[in-house]
Amino acid sequence: MDDISILITGQAGQGIQTVETLLSDIFLGQGYHVFATKEYMSRVRGGSNSTGLRVSSRPVRACTDRIDILLALDREILKRISDRISASTLVIGETGQCRSGIMENVDFRAIASKIGNPVFSNVVATGVILSLLEIDPAVPSRHMESVFGRKGADIVGKNLKALEEGYREGAGIKGRVSPPVPDRPDGKRKGILVNGSQAIGMGAIAGGCNFISAYPMSPSTGVFTYLAGKGREESIVTEQAEDEISAINMVLGASYAGARAMANTSGGGFALMEEGVSLAGMAEIPVVIHIAQRPGPATGLPTRTEQGDLNLALYSGHGEFPRIILAPGTIEEGISLSKRAFDLASSYQSPVFILTDQYYLDSYYDIASLPVIEKKAYGEGVVRTKKGYKRYLLTENGISPRGIPGYGEGLVRIDSDEHDEDGFITEDMDTRKRMVEKRWKKLDTMKKEAPEPGFFGDREYRILLVGWGSTYHIIREAMERTGIGGLGFLHFSQLYPLGGDVIKYLERAEKVIGIENNLTGQFADLIARETGFRIGRRITKYNGLPFSVEEMKELLLKEIK
Question: Between 151 and 436, whose confidence is greater?
């Protein structure tokens, strides 16, 4: 078989992330391709969490329902995932509550306790999996020092013992059953594992980001911590604000002073930032805002996933002013679009949103190498002001030359009230009309420069699938699995304003199907608003989980038939 699906389950604090990290690094080093994603509860300790790991001799990029090997460090989750356990699933651990699958009872805690501490359970489990998949024990042994070396020689030695015991247990299991083993890859690859949070952070660095402010909020925090970790190396000021209102205002102040600045948050936090978005619109301050979507309203499901905040970004802020909304679907897009967000914000002096979600941010897979992107220089897009400088000079396209305080002889006046070209407050109605139209003119240029959506599949399609953001790889693999011709897929990474002649794709199809991780089909509604074309058939999911490849395949077949 070309890929194997492993699910690792356990409570928060049991170290399943350590198992995931060790296995991923080892498999990658052996030349395999790896995809991993998480599903976890909103608690620091306890609960029932899981990590899904696909290991393959070919590239894998999406989550599946199929479980070939289930590693249960905690059996409580077995009830919740019972519909994913098939007769061929090898279930390893305390399997008392499991009613199907091939059960192998292994008391990881008891084995680890004999070594000296139950905490070693996760490394015992790692050894079991590696033994079953016939990985030379010398390979993971070399990882023990790098992973646990800082804790001292005694801890390294006990982890090596735990690994050895795991291999012994795995050999015993393999003597009784024959678990699936993925095809051996052709030679060793030198790919790197990157998750969505890192991709957004890398793109921000490439875009010249030198200031970020946020209040920690799942699932957005990974981007903030990544950039904080790069702060000294990349000269990025990272400020954990006391709340999201402070965060957006710090970002606006930094941008006014010339920084390439970013706000980072999730839905409930962004709700507090909306007045700041209006200030950016009125004062024409460039700002990049990353919204990591999660199910709402209110606290909702804070650690699960959903594409439910498109309308929040689209209609946020009072009054009328333009904005741009981007949504990466791949790791590579996460890097390139985040960089582009800073360029667009600087060019149009408007808010630019990056929409991700928990599934995108917490999933990772291997890519051959990082794209080479030239980092933007400080001061990009800023002019040296002269005496008589007008911050809001009326221009044909609505974009005024952007000055910053202290760079040139001119005064840089901005105001949250309506203002004239000099930045002075005004209540003159004719000036008000001109300024509203000036700001709105930017949208015309935004539309002209917006990229075409990506098209994949049969150019002579009868059925057109429309998706955006993190559904990309799931839809692509599900399409291939249907084995049906005449399918096309239109993937949008810029949601607003729409780029290219979208209507030409839509009108050619006999049937158009919108696919979204929300209840109402927010993007399909946006397409109807912008083009007049209503997508009548919609596949939606909103229980807090992403689509799986198998689920998407069955839903597509149902719609097609």
Answer: 436
